Amino acid sequence: MKRAVYALLSLTLLGGCVKDISDNGSTKPGEEFNKFDFSTVKATTLSVDYGTQAEVYFEVYDAAPVRENAEGTAYEKVEGFEPLYAGYTDAEGRFSAKIDLPAYFAKAYIYTPNVHARTLLTADKNGAALTASALDTETAAAAKATRAGYESAAVTGDGWKTWLGTYDDTYGRIDYAYTGDELREKDWKKLYNAANKVFDTSKACPEEYRSSSDLYLEKDAEVAITFLMSNTCWNCSMGYYYYDAAEHPASLKDVHPIMIFPNTQDGKWSNDPKKAAKYKGVDRGTAVQLMFYPKIAEGSKEGATTVFPKGYRIGFVLATNAWGNQLPGFTGAKKYRAATSDGLSINDKGVAYKQPRTAVYRYTNSSLGLNSVICSFEDYTTDQNFSDVIFTMKSNPVDAVVDIPSVDEKPGADDTKREVRLLKGIYAFEDLWPSRGDYDMNDVMVKLDYAKTVGSKGIYEESYLFKTFNNLAGLENGLAFTLGGDAVSAELEFSILRPAGKDNPSPEYESYAVEREGNVFLLTPNVKQDMGATYKITAKYASPIAEGKAAVVKPFIYRTNDDDLTPGLRKEVHLPFEAPTAKADTKFFGTSDDKSDPASGRYYVRAESYPFAFFLSGATEVDLSKLLDPVNEKTPIDKLYPAYMGWASSNGADNADWYK
Q1: How many helices and strands, by DSSP H and E, does the chain display?
Q2: Which carries the bigger pLDDT value, residue 332 or residue 13?
Q3: What is the C-alpha to C-alpha distance for residues 346 and 352, in angstroms, rounded to an integer?
Q4: Are 440 and 632 in contact (CB under 8 A)?
Q5: pTM of the model as a whole
Q6: Chain centroid, CA 288 distance in Å
Q7: Which pLDDT score is estimated for 268?
Q8: What are phi and psi of 440, to 5 degrees?
Q9: What percent of the chain has pLDDT over 70?
């Protein structure tokens, strides 16, 4: 069952019927009516736990929005998918709330581009709940050694020193972790937000942060690093080196690398964390203080000190899959080395790269007490996100390291904002109300999409888009909507995107005047005037609002030029049970095929299995291509979608995905 989702917030209009095939008699308000509301939306409790102790941005899909790359080493985003929901967890990586999702939802695919969290989680629906957790990998037992002793190829082949201390020979877990407070990043989990401002698993790392320049010390300084994360299938080894800034090294052997982490696998590789956890070599948050050996070129530890002299540069290197105990399916020696020095990174054939394979920047946030250098590597597989191994470095004095890009967060500005576009669905109307019409449900079809700029503090801006489509409707139908939520009192902007044509080959959104009646907005009196156009309403907030106060739009169609209308009023068609606006001509309720009873608050209902309008949550143009095809004009919807009648007759209990 397809779940392709097409881009941008859009609302699809189509029209058809011109002939009323119903009788012209009237009915009494008390006569029997269909109590089914024809809703395709269901309130669902979504619970997500990433176990990160840091906030996570996530998106919810009805099909997997990522796929493995050709090598099986990483996920890549599938183009053409729009999420059905997006939000942030709390500071502990948890989210739980009741949200509206399509009723057909049986399984959720929960995706995050954040580098520190598991890329894809899944959740099967249980009743009215969807629950997903990344914690099931924490209990994975370590893989047993199949032979005595494993070693790093970087040590045996490249001559890396192992002078900082010892480590076990099965997993490479070190026994020389630094536990002091001065140089260890105690608040390392807070740096995930900083990392996410630069690194995104679905995008390339910005060029300004890619660097082949080692860290220059302007002052004598002590230095330590804190391991933040890895997201790779490889069991890599990581080391450091140093040299006088006046003498750039020609090769790694010239600078005598020193081992930091023999095995950087942290057991949280997104594609298969259960497998990766068995080969873990380091825990996130592990710190190591670096040592300066003045006689390292002579192979001597004499004069070892924690203080690096000013005028030196410190470089870092990652050797892909250098650790011998490797994940099954991702074994074998690799020549690949990523180094922070220009000219020292080499590919798997031993040829030097001309482009940087590392990223580095300083992150400061005075309100959080953070001032750290963040570094990362692009490992053997080139996906350009530069987030395969990430660590942070601190120095004493803190300003000893210079000449690197900076991300400076001002006090109170620690909320990471994202713009995300969500698929809502398609509205379909029969325009001959109160008569029954021909039930092809394509007189006006409205595909609704939604965009919001959101952060952990709430929504900063949101937009609804209504896109129109060519139709065969003989009547002149207008398109309007009612607006609820905080958007009613917000700053509103309206624009229109007209379709491309000979005279408009590259259309752009233009400012557009909309008639307003309180919380009712009339987009156009005749959708045919700008057929194929997209109407956009944007609400901007002075301060972020909660999700529960977000804008709510309820589209409807209307006409004002029918001969039988009361002057100044209009005919409106809304969803079943939805109240009309104050300008609706109420004399048509309870006439012809309509079973409305305004006295009891019942509107736009009828007695049989076809409504006057419905909303198909999560539907796309592809899903409803049969309705959009002029060949099918006047064909009842159940003839085009055989599962429809089972859904309607069961009051939505069966065939909830009839239109997918």
Answers
A1: 6, 34
A2: 332
A3: 4
A4: yes
A5: 0.89
A6: 34
A7: 93
A8: -80, -10
A9: 92
